[in-house]
Task: inverse folding
């Protein structure tokens, strides 16, 4: 079980250090190796995704990624900016499936902008296709409009397309994720308007024949957006394309109100994965021991579940996090009066203590 540890910039090194401590405490045969990425990669080797870092990520079974980016790199030309590292890794490792859980622990129900009874205990998973759809379809560009009322004017255009194999592989990931959860999958499309998503629906339905234990339903994206804020707890797993997933996963993340709590996974065809918190490098709080490391710690739990098939170890971490929250331990971003405020390291230590006491 070889893991590439890529802490990156800003709060990345602080939060990843806590997740590494948690992984090490599990006493599994893990081999961890660290490399520079993002702004740190640029400083050390002149490139946000140095060759040695990419080679390590390719050799490893999984990557634990902190975050990249800092305003001080804003004037670099685009290919050298820290954010290019994550795009490069997704491309080079063929990470086509993005898994983002949105979980709201009952103890944090007040952090949401929705009423506690609507979101308390929320536990949904959004599976977003990450490498296709209108974001990558060609042709695209700006041209002279060839027909219609605006013929002869300039127009911008993009191409929405999904190949059968592309839909099947993301559908398999989603069905298998649903099997590990409550066994319900909602495929989100716009089949009433778009040919691409009529086809999507057909292929997802056909793939579903191989998963009789998963209950599949279909929902138009506009309705899905509405249901996410009306009754989010009705969902278990949602699967959708790149653009709809981009929008819905951010909306779902915000249901929980605490960005420091949300892990994510990006997987390839063999469940090799890159695991990272859903938030960025938070340069505004970097180096001050205040960042919440739980999203990164929970990303490590996802790694154990999806890449290494270590469900029990994943649940040990998740139970430890729940216990710490139940004890009232809080970093500043989720703090409420009367709770025990800790820093990044303090939160890492609390999770470690909970892990050990449960062992
Ligand atoms: P951000 O997610 O870094 O921060 C948004 C806000 O949330 C900030 O106020 C920050 O302090 C807070 N926050 C984020 N994570 C937190 C945590 N763990 N604990 C407590 N508070 C936390 O987004 P941003 O400010 O828009 O971007 C900052 C930098 O991060 C930019 O350079 C951006 O490009 C980069 N970024 C990187 C990734 C990535 O590495 N995958 C993703 C998003 C943004």
Result:
């Amino acid at each position: 079980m070889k893991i590439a540890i890529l802490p990156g910039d800003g709060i990345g090194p602080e939060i990843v250090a806590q997740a590494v401590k948690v992984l090490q405490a599990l006493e599994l045969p893990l081999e961890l190796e660290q490399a520079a990425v993002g702004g740190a990669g640029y400083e050390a080797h002149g490139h946000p995704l140095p060759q040695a870092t990419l080679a390590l990520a390719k050799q490893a079974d999984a990557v634990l990624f902190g975050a990249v980016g800092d305003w001080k790199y804003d004037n670099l030309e685009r290919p050298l900016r820290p954010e290019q590292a994550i795009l490069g890794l997704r491309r080079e490792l063929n990470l086509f499936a993005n898994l983002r859980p949105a979980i709201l622990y009952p103890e944090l129900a007040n952090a949401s902008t929705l009423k506690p009874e609507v979101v308390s205990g929320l536990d949904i998973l959004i599976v977003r296709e990450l490498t296709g759809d209108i974001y990558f379809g060609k042709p695209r560009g700006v041209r002279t409009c060839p027909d219609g009322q605006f013929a002869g004017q300039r127009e911008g255009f993009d191409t929405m397309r999904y190949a059968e194999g592309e839909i099947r592989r993301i559908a398999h990931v989603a069905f298998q994720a649903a099997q590990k959860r409550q066994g319900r999958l909602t495929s989100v499309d716009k089949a009433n308007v778009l040919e691409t998503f009529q086809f999507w629906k057909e292929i997802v339905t056909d793939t579903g024949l191989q998963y009789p234990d998963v209950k599949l339903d279909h929902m138009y994206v506009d309705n899905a957006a509405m249901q996410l804020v009306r009754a989010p707890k009705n969902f278990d797993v949602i699967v959708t394309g790149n653009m709809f997933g981009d929008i819905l996963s951010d909306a779902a993340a915000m249901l929980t109100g605490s960005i420091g709590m949300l892990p994510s996974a990006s997987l390839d065809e063999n469940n090799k994965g890159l695991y990272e918190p859903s938030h960025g490098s938070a340069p505004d709080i970097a180096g001050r021991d205040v960042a919440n490391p739980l999203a990164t710690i929970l990303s490590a739990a996802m790694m154990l579940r999806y890449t290494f098939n270590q469900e029990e170890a994943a649940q040990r971490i998740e139970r430890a996090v729940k216990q710490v929250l139940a004890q009232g331990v809080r970093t500043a971003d989720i703090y409420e009066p009367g709770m025990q405020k800790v820093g990044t390291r303090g939160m890492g230590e609390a999770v470690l203590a909970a892990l050990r006491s449960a062992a």
